[in-house]
Every structure is written in C-alpha cells, then in structure tokens.
Specification:
Elements: H1 2-14, H2 19-38, E1 47-48, E2 60-68, E3 72-82, E4 85-86, E5 90-95, H3 98-102, H4 105-123, E6 129-136, E7 140-144, E8 147-150, H5 167-177, E9 181-188, H6 190-201, E10 207-211, E11 215-222, E12 240-244, H7 258-266, H8 276-279, H9 281-292, H10 295-298, H11 303-312, H12 321-329, H13 336-344, H14 351-383, E13 390-395, H15 397-401, H16 405-423, E14 425-429, H17 433-448
Parallel strand pairs: 2-6, 6-9, 10-13, 13-14
Antiparallel strand pairs: 1-12, 2-3, 3-4, 3-5, 7-8, 10-11, 11-12
Bound molecules: alpha-D-glucopyranose.
Catalytic activity: D-glucose + ATP = D-glucose 6-phosphate + ADP + H(+); a D-hexose + ATP = a D-hexose 6-phosphate + ADP + H(+); D-fructose + ATP = D-fructose 6-phosphate + ADP + H(+)
Organism: Emiliania huxleyi (strain CCMP1516)
Pfam families: Hexokinase_1, Hexokinase_2
C-alpha cells in the first residue's frame, strides 16, 4: 500500500498546477502575446491572417474547401446561402499516409491534389471549377489572404523541403498539373476557420480554439495593436485583423515536469510546441506512458501489471489518448471496463492497479484542462476591450470526447476569472467548423475583391 500511496503522491505533485502557477503562466502568456504582436522575439508567433472583415453570415456562393491538419484530409463542397444558413455539404475524407506526411513537399501536396481529383470524379461528374478555401493547420506566415509560407511542421508531419515555401503555390501547382480548374483563393488556419464557421451564425464570436491532435487559438485584434509590417500598413483603412496565436508553442518551462521534458526531448520537434505537448490529444497518452515507466510510479503497481505495461507500451505513442478517455469514462465500481481495456492490451491489473491507473489519467488530463483554461482566460483579455459576454468557438476531439475535460476547464476559468466573469464565457462546440470556415473566408475574400456569387 505504501508504494501505491507514494506513486500517487509523485503523480499528484508532478502534474499539479496550483492557482499561483496558473496565474503566473497567464502573465507570461500576455507578455509573450504582446511581444509577438509587435513582431519581437516570442514563443507566441501571433501570426497575421489578412482576414480583416468580420464574418457577417451574409457571405454567399458555391465553394470548395480543403482541410489538412492531422490524420485526415477532407475535401468539401458546399453552398453558403446567407442569413447564417449553409446548404448541404458534400464531403469525403482521406487518411494521410505516413509516407506523404514525411516525404517531400511535392509528394504531400501531390497526394492532396490526387484526393481532390478523386472527389471531382466521384462527386462532380469529373469536372469542377471554382474557388477553394484551404484550411492548413500548421504555422504559416501569411503575406496575403491567399499566400503563406510554412514556418514549421508539427503533429507528426515532416516534409522538410516545404518549410519556407508558399503552401498555396505548392497546392495550386499540383492541382494544375492534374488539369483541375479550381483556384485556391483563401488560406486559413483551423482556428480561424472554426471562428469563421461559428461567426456565420453567431457574428459576435470572440475566438476560435482547437483542442484536438494539436491545440491553438485565433481571435480578432485591433489593427492599432499589430506591429508595423505585420499585415496592417500605414494609412490602411483596416481596423482589425484575425490573429493566429499558435499558442501551442507557448514557453511552459516554468510549469513543466520531468515527464514533459522527456516527451519533448524524444519528439520530432524538441523545444517547440511545449504547451501543445502538455495539452493536446497527440501527447496526453504519451505523457502518461512516460510517467508510468518512471521508477517511483511503476513501483505503485503490482509486479504483473508493471511488467504488462512494459510489454504493451514499450513503443512511443503506443498508449493513445482515446484509451485514457475510455479509462476515465469507466463508472463501474470494480472498474470492469478498465480491466477489459487492459486485457485487450495483454495487461493484468488488480483493482488497486486499475484505480491507480485511473487516478494517473485524471492527473494528466486535469492539468491539460487547467492549462487550456489559462490559454482561454489570457486570450480573452486581449480579445475583449471590456469584460462582458463572450462566445468561444471550440473544436477538437479532446474537448468533444474526453470525459470531464470541459467541466475541468470551466473550473479553471472560474479560478482565473472569478465566478461572475467565468459565467460570461460560453464555450460552444463548433464541430468540423474548420473546413466550412475556410469556404466562408474564401467567400469573404471574393466580396473584398468585389466579386459576389
Ligand atoms: C498545431 C498547429 C496549429 C493548429 C493546431 C491545431 O498547433 O501549429 O496551426 O491550429 O495544431 O490543429
């Protein structure tokens, strides 16, 4: 029993995020965000998006949207009807092969164009023309609404020669090589797309946030607060612009533990995306896997169970965040579902083992939810000129499916903002908004060019 208690205490202390640490991180977030906006060195890139119009819900027309951001690539075709209404959406989803994720830029963008060809053959009678909104969920330094160079890959992508290249030009060239007569007219991060999709029916939406494979957020900033040469030129009539914060890269050195450091060091992008590595779906399972292998924690499990963990979870990323979610969802008194999940992985655990495992999942996921709250509370301070009701559009599997994630996050918001201001924040699930949002942004770009459909 003593070893079990010691293991639990180690986990609890390592993954604790006391209110004072949350507050310090919020202050750091604000300092880094202001530096990023000004164009100074900062872990928050605060990327300009060149989206300078608020979505009104009156954008109309027929558009394609392409959505690349994680395990799948989606092709959509839809009609924006105005009045906040969207017609039926035709869509197909394609799994992105590892070879395309880690090959050359031409291979990856060639694969995307092949998927578009397949969609056009199956859904459009082999012929299609029109504007495309391209959701690209990686940091891209935009120079226009339809141009942006890739800053860095993450989430397991590594087509190295694409870094520094304009991703719209890469995609357009591959589409043309296949005789496709479509034109990429808007580039959008998934957070910006999610914000646009929510704003289509709820124009006051304050920000778009993703808690999925990765994590990030976008909001609308006043032009006057954005540094010169970062998208808003002198004498321009623009008064505001959506900013892609890329908060996944926030420097979390002050709050990270030894397991975070180990996960980061073993990753493809050490030193980068440190907030993301503590919060997002790609990493929560890996963090727990790393913690379970630490001697002080391992000693808390029965010998058979610990040996089972060693065998089942020896490979990086072999323990998935979806398994943690399933473990925490088990409400049976004897944790029968956990026993079943472990048995499937070839692990045998006593009730004490299963209950320690569930507590360990909760330690990792609760800290993630509290960090998520720090992100939202910090960004709210930038997004709102004065306190008041705020609609936050949120998407991503962790937010949608991880049991208790939203409630713990709301608890964190209450700690940081106080109960009254926290009540003003509505977290609204905007499912699959990123693709639809890119189509809306393409429509807004067409309006700005004076072309209306
Ligand atoms: C990563 C990407 C970011 C994206 C997020 C969620 O953090 O850098 O651009 O928004 O994942 O998909």
């Amino acid at each position: 029993m003593a070893a079990r208690d010691a293991a639990w205490e180690a986990l609890r202390d390592e993954f604790a995020l006391p209110p004072a640490s949350m507050e310090n991180l919020r202050q750091l977030f604000l300092t880094e965000a202001r530096a990023g906006l000004a164009g100074s060195d900062s872990s928050l890139r605060m990327l300009p998006t060149y989206l300078t119009r608020r979505v009104t819900g009156e954008e109309t027309g027929e558009y394609f949207a392409l959505d690349l951001g994680g395990t799948h690539f989606r092709v959509l075709q839809l009609r924006l009807e105005g009045g906040g209404r969207i017609g039926p959406v035709r869509q197909r989803q394609f799994k992105v092969p590892d070879a395309a994720k880690r090959g050359s830029g031409a291979e990856l963008f060639g694969f995307l164009a092949d998927c578009v060809s397949a969609f056009v053959a199956a859904e459009c009678g082999g012929e299609a023309a029109g504007d495309i909104g391209f959701t690209f969920s990686f940091p891209a330094a935009q120079t226009a609404i339809d141009a942006g160079t890739l800053v860095a890959w993450n989430k397991g992508f590594a087509a190295a020669d694409a870094i520094g290249a304009d991703v719209v030009a890469l995609l357009q060239a591959q589409l043309e090589a296949r005789g496709l007569k479509m034109r990429v007219t808007a580039l959008a991060n998934d957070t910006v797309g999610t914000m646009a999709a929510a704003a289509y029916s709820c124009p006051g939406t304050a920000m778009g946030v993703i808690f999925g494979t990765g994590t990030n957020a976008a909001y609308v900033e006043q032009a006057a607060k954005i540094g010169k040469g970062r998208g808003v030129e002198d004498g321009s009539r623009e008064t505001e612009m959506a900013i892609n914060t890329e908060w996944g890269n926030l420097d979390t050195a002050a709050v990270r533990n030894e397991h975070d450091a180990a996960v980061d060091a073993a990753s493809e992008n050490p030193g980068l995306q440190r907030f993301e590595k503590m919060v997002s779906g790609m990493y929560l399972g890996e963090l727990l896997r790393t913690a379970l292998a630490a001697p002080a924690v391992r000693a808390g499990f029965s010998r058979t169970c610990a040996a089972g963990f060693d065998a089942a979870f020896s490979e990086r990323f072999s323990l998935h965040t979806s398994t943690l979610a399933a473990i925490e969802a088990d409400a049976t008194p004897d944790l029968a579902e956990v026993a079943h999940l472990l048995a499937e992985a070839g692990v045998q655990g006593t009730l004490a083992d299963r209950s320690l495992l569930r507590d360990a999942c909760a330690a990792v996921s609760t800290r993630a939810a509290l960090l998520a709250a720090v992100g939202i509370a910090s960004l709210l301070e930038l997004a709102q000129s004065e306190p008041g009701p705020a609609t936050v559009a949120v998407d991503g599997t962790v937010f949608e499916r991880y049991p208790g994630f939203q409630a713990r996050m709301e608890g964190g918001l209450e700690m940081l903002l106080g109960p009254e201001r926290a009540r003003d924040v509505s977290l609204v699930l905007t499912k699959d908004g990123s693709g639809v949002g890119a189509a809306i942004i393409a429509a807004a770009a067409a309006q700005a060019r004076g072309e209306t459909q």
